[in-house]
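To whoever is covering the structure queue this week,

Two jobs came back overnight. Logging them here so there's a record in the thread.

Job A:
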Amino acid sequence: MDELKNWFDETFYRELAEHLHGQYSKFNRQSFVDAALDGLQELELKARLRRTTELVVGQLPSDFSTALDILKPIAPHYDMMFKGMFLPDFVGLYGRNDIEKSLEALKYFTEYGSSEFAIREFFIIDFERTLEAMIGWAKDENHHVRRLASEGSRPRLPWSFQLKALMDDPTPVKPILESLKADPELYVRKSVANHLNDISKDNPETMLDWVDGWDGEAQETAWIIKHASRSLLKQGHPRAFALFGFEAKPAISLSEVDLSATSLVLGDKLNLSFSVTSNKRSAQKLAIDYIVHYVKKNGKTAPKVFKLKELVVQSGSCQTISKSQTFENFSTRTHYSGEHRIEVMVNGISMASATFQLKV
């Protein structure tokens, strides 16, 4: 976030002022730069983006269409950079009374700075018309436009407001995802997978029904299905494991979890190991994960799933699984003293656990 925030600096504003003056001679470059830099250091990323939009609009003609004609030619200067997102932000804020022209502009601007946030404003204004446009965009020859169709319609898009209607019923966006389920661009496939993962949080069976009918042998589609199922796999959802051929009810014996220590201080490394023995006459595909139940500040615990290993075990075979983990503070996790628990999961089913004390 800090790195992106710093894109909106004095150099950016001076260059933008020159571009705008070149398209509109009445644009006052110095007053624009002075206003942009006033208190800039205190502003975070989204606040800088919104300030940029508002200051640009403050010097452009009030007519939306006229202002749009001034802004369109400067878009190529911000080819796929976050700071170019003030252009679709302008449309989302000031184009609400001209949906047709706004949708056309967002399609154009997304090639230079994604319109994924701005398009959501139009779902609120006219859901059906916006959806119709995005279904068409999913078949566009430009991969940035195809990605917008998926990313902009995500029910839980990060950094944006949720689309409650699609959280309740994702069915309207199914044609978009169907069109993109084998897209040749990884950039687009990532969006489709993240979109499906969003759906899985509110409508897991719907999401699984959709991907269950897709061609899992196709490389592009298989990647989407696997990435889209990550939340359900962490939750141990049986249908999610079945999608990838994992045994629904693994017939195995798991030894006790052996820990290298039962008392640690912050910074120590913990080694854990256990053995898996197959009790089935045929081979079994297993996904082995482990959960660390971290102690929180209030003394309660919160689980964190770690992927460990995927393997196929033959009849009667026995395999030893081991893992090392260092317990230290990160920007995303602060440790607290108390009893922690490690839980071993096989195909989403809890099989064994062990506890240790951590002193911070």
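Job B:
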Amino acid sequence: MNEFHTEPEPYSPQHNPLEQSLNAASGLTTRSEYLKLTKTLTYSYIFVLPLILLYEIGIWLINAGQLSQIRIGADILIKRILQFVGIDGTIWFSIVLLAIGGVILWYERKQKIPIRPRYFLFMVLESAVYGIALGILVSSLVASLFSLSWPPVLQVGERMSLSQGLVLSLGAGIYEELVFRLILVTLLVALLSLTGIEGRRRYAIAAVIGALIFSGVHYVGSLGDVFTVASFTFRFLMGLALNGLFLWRGFGIAAMTHALYDIFVTLMQM
């Protein structure tokens, strides 16, 4: 899904000098390279690593001295799976995280993927645009469907402080995208490929099934939200949009979009 295929000279625009000049003038080569590079796992890993560090530091700070620990559900799930296989504690988690990054960077660097620092800034700006646009579009659609005021207030939970809301927003962007997009949607696409379903239909079905699961898990367990059709629809549509964004633009952009959207909502509610 995030494979980057190279040619003998991967990032040379054209061998023809005239075509090089035309492409440079139009900006088509740079735009194409940006879209390809920023979808790779290399760029995604480097891009989300600061979010992971900020979330883990923030969680440690807001939980210090507290009897009850606040964490993102997807984060708890991943940590429990790691504990089950004997990987427990912050140090071991950090080692696993760095090892995964090392494998990604080693594998994809063999394909001579260049690192363009300015692209990471563009990725932040791109994600911010998606976060605002998706929030407005999905909220407006749900408000229209269920005759709600805009923006629709779909759930009322325990009120959090600004610091808690911001930290959990980062965690949602990282760990929910890791579980429900990178793992779940990728797995669904792989399973559907075994059925003979090909092309865009396979990705569309995976996106829909993944969005249904993403929305549904919010109502499971003793800490789950009270089910309403409006909130389920909102989460389904947002999950569907993020699934499409993940398939189109990769994990890094989807994770940052999710995190920034949650940050925007947190700031609006303060």
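Note for Job B: Residues 17-152+159-269 form one domain.

Please reply-all if you pick these up so we don't duplicate work.
Q.
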